[in-house]
Design a protein that fits this description.
Length: about 600
């Protein structure tokens, strides 16, 4: 614009200077410069395409610092390149505008919390975000399936657009799991279940299907859970040809479940832990209890062991005040010793991992940030630390949000420094520097956001990293962590604890096995009908107790009672078997594992 004005002024320079209004001159007599073009005017189509090519080139060739600088400038530019790329995207995987949109939008989302994203519509509104999911999930799925077909002969390549587009869909799905951005079925791709199942049957490779690596959210949860259980089963079958061929006997004294369990399980090799474990209970008089462990005794032991290790008086885990969800106790090292605490957390990780592998549901429900750490294989989600802090310490989170929004001119008056103070397990005041010599560095308007992030990092990362990492190490001994990365945090919790809803007796009835009953005898039919009538009349707690009596678990398996092994069984036992007169029949409820 300035170049055009300069060219015009050269042809009419004398006339312009002669006719210039004196009021338009500056005090020094010079003509003021023309105002620049309004920077809020969005890019036109050609400009957006040119900028998109520039972004893809920079990301492909520049160093990390340069990429970060360019993406930051574009993510928060007044001309709103995000909307320009969205408006010009051709929705092809290799389209520069589509790839640039993925890069810049992912960067912009790092600075927006979940509440802001829904309330402000910035950087994009819910409609635009849902459109991105709908437009990109199908072509990405088709590409990954095509790549899987040739992966046996040629390793799966990584085109430059794969990471940003798959990463954007994963980021949006992670946010939607915390606070819904789209309906649950908006992420599912038609035919995904069949494609994964077909590939799993036909492929002998142990490599995970690329769809499960890059966009697992497009496959329904039940299908992914089945793959986990079948993968564990296949792994166990392979390992049973080695030292896990014979089952491992574990003797447990009643009343000493924690100590005996720790001594036995912590010393097992990885192969034996993944193999079959058989439990023998010893009563208070030192006698072995009668019974053969066909699965029921193992479930009973494992659920009692889990209840013991997660008990509040043990002090390994804390419960958040608002959500009542668990996370590693940052003071566990003070309670159990710096040397013993990691060993205990590794043992707990083995307990949880083995429970998932065996389909045993456990009671504890974990905090979202800890589940994110687990599913990432021992890496924290630094982009969500401040949001996660709200579930652990809501008062601290409120104060940090207040500081972030406080009047910039008054931040210095708060007298804050780069130090953090808290009480330990024994009530002693602990003060830590967030940066070297943090007590000498004041918090100002310029560095307050760094301070906020460092405080959140201290409480959720620095204080928990050692014990949380030991937990993941134990989990990895029991199952392949790659299997867990295909689940979101709520799905992973469902895999560990099962459904929190009341026991679905309709589902249980559909998948019950009957022994010694005849469908043609009216007395037998009435007996079965009476049992289910009584069972369905129970309250939520008693239904859970009935399930625990029969299966040793209070909750249904993650995939429902169809996956319960062995199945729930009703067995009719003639009273004559107990020496009673007559042939009156009765019903007993038990799992064949009991």
């Amino acid at each position: 614009k300035k170049k055009k004005k300069k060219k015009a002024s050269t042809t009419e320079e004398d006339d312009a200077s002669a006719e210039q209004d004196p009021s338009s001159f500056d005090e020094d007599g010079s003509v003021p410069e023309e105002e620049e073009e309004d920077t809020t005017v969005p890019f036109d189509t050609a400009g957006a395409h040119t900028l998109a090519k520039f972004v893809t080139t920079v990301v492909a060739r520049a160093d990390e610092a340069s990429k970060f600088h360019v993406l930051t400038c574009l993510a928060f530019h007044r001309k709103d390149p995000v909307r320009a790329f969205y408006a010009t995207a051709a929705w092809r995987l290799d389209d520069p505008s589509t790839v640039a949109l993925a890069h810049v939008l992912r960067h912009a989302l790092m600075a927006v919390d979940d509440a802001e994203l829904r309330a402000s519509g910035d950087p994009l509104g819910l409609f635009e975000l849902r459109t991105i999911v709908a437009r990109l999930k199908d072509p990405l799925f088709r590409h990954l399936c095509a790549a899987a077909e040739t992966a046996t002969a040629t390793p799966l390549g990584s085109p430059p657009w794969l990471a940003p587009i798959a990463g954007l869909l994963a980021d949006l799905h992670a946010r939607s799991c915390r606070r819904a951005l789209a309906p649950a079925d908006a992420w599912i791709v038609s035919g995904a279940s069949a494609a994964i199942a077909s590939e799993a049957r036909s492929s002998s490779s142990q490599t995970q299907h690329p769809v499960l690596t890059y966009m697992p959210q497009c496959v329904p949860f039940r299908e992914r859970a089945k793959l986990v259980l079948s993968g564990v089963s296949s792994s166990r079958h392979t390992e049973e040809t080695s030292e896990a061929t014979h089952k491992t006997l574990i003797t447990v004294r009643r009343g000493h479940v924690f100590r005996d369990g720790f001594d036995a399980i912590a010393s097992l090799s990885r192969d034996r832990l993944r193999g079959r474990l058989s439990i023998i209970f010893v009563d208070a008089f030192g006698r072995h209890e009668a019974g053969v462990d066909a699965g029921g005794l193992f479930k009973e032991f494992w659920t009692e062991l889990a209840a013991a290790v997660f008990a509040p008086d043990v002090g390994l885990f804390k419960t958040s005040e608002t959500s009542l969800q668990m996370y590693p106790n940052p003071d566990a090292a003070s309670l159990h010793g710096a040397r013993d605490a990691p060993a205990l957390f590794k043992f707990v990780g083995r307990v949880v991992g083995k429970a998932v592998a065996e389909g045993v549901t456990l009671q504890p429900r974990f905090n979202r940030f800890f589940l994110a750490f687990v599913r990432r294989g021992g890496r924290f989600d630094f982009g969500a630390l401040l949001d996660d802090l709200a579930a652990v310490d809501p008062d601290l989170h409120k104060n940090l949000k207040f500081l972030s929004l406080y009047d910039a001119a008054l931040v210095g008056d708060l007298g804050l420094t780069f130090q953090v103070t808290h009480d330990d397990a024994f009530g002693r005041v602990v003060t830590k520097d967030l940066v070297p010599h943090g007590g000498d560095r004041a918090v100002t308007a310029a560095n307050r956001f760094q301070y906020v992030q460092l405080v959140a990092k201290y409480h959720l990362v620095d204080r928990l990293a050692a014990n949380a990492t030991a937990f993941v190490d134990g989990l990895a001994d029991a199952l392949d962590l790659e299997l867990l990365r295909m689940f979101s945090e709520p799905e992973l919790q469902l895999l560990i604890s099962g459904a929190e809803d009341a026991v679905d007796l309709e589902d249980l009835e559909r998948h019950t096995r009957y022994e010694n009953f005849s469908s043609v005898l009216p007395a037998d039919r009435r007996l079965v009908q009476r049992f289910w009538a009584v069972a369905k009349s129970l309250d939520k707690r008693d239904k859970a107790m009935l399930l625990k009596f029969a299966t040793s678990c209070e909750r249904a398996p993650p995939l429902g009672f169809a996956s319960l092994a062995p199945p729930f069984t009703l067995r009719k036992v003639p009273l004559d078997d107990y020496g009673a007169a007559g042939s009156t029949s009765s019903a007993s409820s038990s799992s064949s594992s009991s």
